[in-house]
Design brief:
alpha+beta; Thrombin, subunit H; 3 domains; seven-stranded antiparallel sheet; 27 helices; 22 strands; globular; aminopeptidase; Peptidase_S1_PA_chymotrypsin; Dipeptidyl-peptidase; Pep_S46
């Protein structure tokens, strides 16, 4: 009995080191700062095996997938594994009602069957470098915001040019810690990407919006693509003569499975966090910004769904758009709720109080917090018009197309022919896509309904032109006029107009006039002297606040906000307790899929092929003890953009694919919640079971290096 008690004490002590989530999105080229801690968590690799410029390393198997997700290379023939929702647009775009890959799945049995995907890219990171010293030595505290920005661009343009001289690589410089540091990134982008395989969305999107951001989860959120290159193994435009890429590194795949406490490391391209946001920003987000985004997106979803339910072709064309809108509709619902529940504003205020004590009497930091407070007060009145510029002008597709024409005409009037030509090309490309894939019924109904919301929400003194003159009651009549006379409301009218493009005639088009008015109203609102001054003061104050917070905690290791650059986060496989009396285990199984099955609900339909093998318990080498693991939890620190990221064990082997965060920690992009923040990942054994046993694409598994 004493031995058992002693063993339990040891277990409790050892688990205490990983009972909290591991905060930090670290830059791989700086992992020396964390390496000893990583080893304590279970890492067995050397630093060089994770990030190396001269030799093959883990970084060489991790790609930015399309610029919006992450993927990993899992074979020596350029095979990509990413999330189903990351490949969703490509899968839907390749589908027709007759060849419905989105609903039925698709598996290429050889290279020739793989489907070319327009517009997708795979970007590899070649190297990273700290160039802070080169940039900061050219800056001083007396510079205006405009002078500072101009000098930064001047210096970084030279750094970028020098970094890629004599190569075909690309490079860019980003600022970190709100402009306190600057890092250079050199990359290589491949443009010939082909769809290799996807499960039907009943598996890849199992649980739909109901389960999104939730645990327990039972989703096969994966799809497969392949990188193609020229005969020299370098990027090339699509060609039948291109060959599968020979990567510098591909991830071996572990079949050993995961258990509580196992080391877990995620590498990827997280999009955006705002961990240094102050309480004033949190208050604005909760009270004004996020509820309005939710309202607008709910209306968009309502209209899309009405038409998608009536027509399969419309559903295929809008599936990706609907999923994108729905994902962040629910995200903002959850974030608002958890910012309140987790008392994030109060936590931020505590940091600000500590900063006030630290900075007292220091001239450099005088007025920093008050400048931040006053800036948010000044911008409260323009939050709505900024939201509508993003959610309405730029994200309703017909509006975004017309907006490009508006920008083009502005460039022409300003005498900038080069910009005019570029914008015209972009507008024509947008129009081609919209008239091929969008429904004018959806576009124009969305236009009308969200326009009514705009007129109600945006202060009247910020509105100009049409919105101010017609009012809410005049919107229906205005939309009727758009339908009957706008060149943009009909493909036929548009094509006829473009045969003899006439800027003067365009200027009389009702939809063009509306977009011009909306943009002019936005520019006037954000261009006010008081608003511009507040923005400049906020940028300076944020930079100094972050600098000061780091100085006042000299022994703490700080990481920068996510900004779509490669990051590494490490931790362990770990369960959690979301609230009193509730415990969530660290994994789910295929049994849970069957428990959720509901043939009457499209979100919970189970593919008969999956059900048949489940009934037989035919799991092959991918099951364990009569069970098949589906999803698992780890305490890694991720955000949007990490979707599709590899989850890697201590030996550098792939154990899963990250695809979501958990509901209770939806505030995590602004304040990391160490006790409850979790990453939800797809167990690689479920992926391989579906590919191999369920859908018969054994040819793909044969490419991979499996570690048993």
């Amino acid at each position: 009995m004493k031995k058992i008690i002693f063993a339990l004490v040891l277990l409790t002590y050892s688990m205490g080191n990983i009972a909290r989530a591991d905060e930090g999105m670290w830059l791989p080229f700086l992992i020396g700062r964390n390496y000893e801690d990583m080893k304590k968590h279970g890492l067995k690799l050397t630093q060089e095996q994770i990030y190396s410029i001269n030799n093959s390393s883990l970084k060489d198997a991790v790609i930015s997938f399309g610029g919006f997700c992450t993927g990993e290379i899992i074979s020596n023939q350029g095979l990509i594994l990413t999330n189903h929702h990351c490949g969703y647009d490509a899968i839907a775009g390749a589908s027709t009602p007759e060849q419905n890959y989105l609903d039925n799945g698709f598996w290429a049995k050889n290279f020739k069957e793989e489907i070319a995907v327009k517009g997708l890219t795979a970007t590899f990171m070649i190297r990273m470098e700290d160039v802070s010293q080169q940039v900061l030595k050219e800056l001083n505290s007396k510079m205006t915001a405009e002078e500072r920005a101009k000098k930064i661009k001047e210096v970084t343009d030279i750094l970028v040019k020098d970094a890629v001289a004599g190569t075909k690589y690309e490079a860019f410089v980003r600022d970190f810690y709100d402009g306190n540091e600057f890092y250079l990134f050199v990359k290589e982008t491949f443009k010939d990407i082909r769809l290799v395989g996807t499960p039907p969305q009943s598996a890849g999107k199992f649980g739909g919006d109901t389960d999104n951001w939730e645990w327990p989860r039972h989703t096969a959120d994966f799809s497969m693509f392949r990188v193609y290159a020229g005969s020299d193994n370098k990027p090339a435009d699509f060609s039948d003569s291109n060959v599968p890429l020979k990567p510098k590194h591909s991830l071996p795949i572990s079949l050993k499975g995961v258990k509580q406490g196992d080391y877990a490391m995620v590498m990827g391209f997280p999009g955006r966090t705002n961990r240094y946001l102050t309480s004033y920003g949190v208050d604005q987000a909760i009270a004004i910004e996020q509820p309005k985004i939710v309202d607008i997106r709910a209306k968009k979803l309502e209209i899309m769904k009405k038409y998608m339910d009536k027509d399969v072709a419309v559903r295929l064309h809008y599936s990706s758009k609907y999923a994108q809108v729905a994902n962040y509709w629910k995200y903002f619902i959850g974030q608002t709720k958890q910012l309140k529940a987790n008392k994030v504003a109060d936590k931020k205020r505590k940091v600000e109080e500590e900063f006030a004590k630290f900075s007292a009497g220091k001239e450099e930091y005088a007025g920093v917090v008050s400048d931040i407070e006053n800036a948010f007060k000044a911008t409260n009145d323009i939050v709505y018009i900024k939201i509508y510029q993003s959610e309405f002008v730029r994200q309703v597709d017909i509006n975004s197309m017309v907006y490009l024409y508006k920008l083009a005409i502005d460039a022409k009037n300003a005498g900038n022919d080069q910009r005019f030509n570029g914008l015209m090309d972009a507008a024509k490309a947008s129009a081609e896509e919209i008239y091929a894939e969008r429904s004018m019924d959806i576009e124009l109904e969305t236009l009308g309904e969200v326009l009514k919301m705009y007129i109600r929400d945006v202060p009247m003194n910020q509105q100009v032109g049409i919105t101010k003159s017609i009012g809410v009651d005049g919107v229906d009549a205005f939309i009727a006029r758009v339908k009957s006379s706008s060149v943009f409301a009909s493909k036929e009218r548009y094509e006829e107009f473009m045969k003899n493009f006439d800027a003067a005639k365009l200027a009389q088009d009702p939809l063009f006039i509306l977009l011009k008015d909306l943009d002019n109203a936005y520019q006037a609102a954000v261009g006010q002297d008081a608003i511009k001054s507040a923005g400049e003061k906020l940028a300076r104050a944020n930079r100094l606040f972050v600098k000061g917070v780091r100085e006042m905690q000299p022994n703490k290791k700080f990481y920068p906000n996510a900004n779509s650059t490669m990051r590494l986060t490490y931790g362990n496989v770990l369960a959690y307790d979301p609230r009193d009396g509730v415990h969530y285990d660290f994994f789910t199984t295929l049994d849970g899929v069957m428990q959720k099955e509901d043939p009457t609900n499209p979100e919970f339909v189970v593919d008969p092929r999956i059900k048949e093998l489940w009934e037989k318990k035919d799991y092959g080498q991918y099951g364990s003890n009569g069970k098949l693991a589906v999803n698992f939890l780890s305490n890694n620190d991720i955000t949007g953009g990490n979707s599709g990221s590899p989850v890697i064990n201590g030996n550098g082997e792939l154990i899963g694919t990250a695809f979501d965060g958990n509901w209770e920690a939806m505030s995590g992009d602004i304040y990391f919640e160490p006790n409850i923040q979790r990453t939800i990942s797809l167990d690689i054994r479920y992926t391989l079971w579906l590919v191999d046993k369920c859908y018969g694409a054994t040819n793909l598994v044969n490419e991979m290096k499996l570690v048993k």
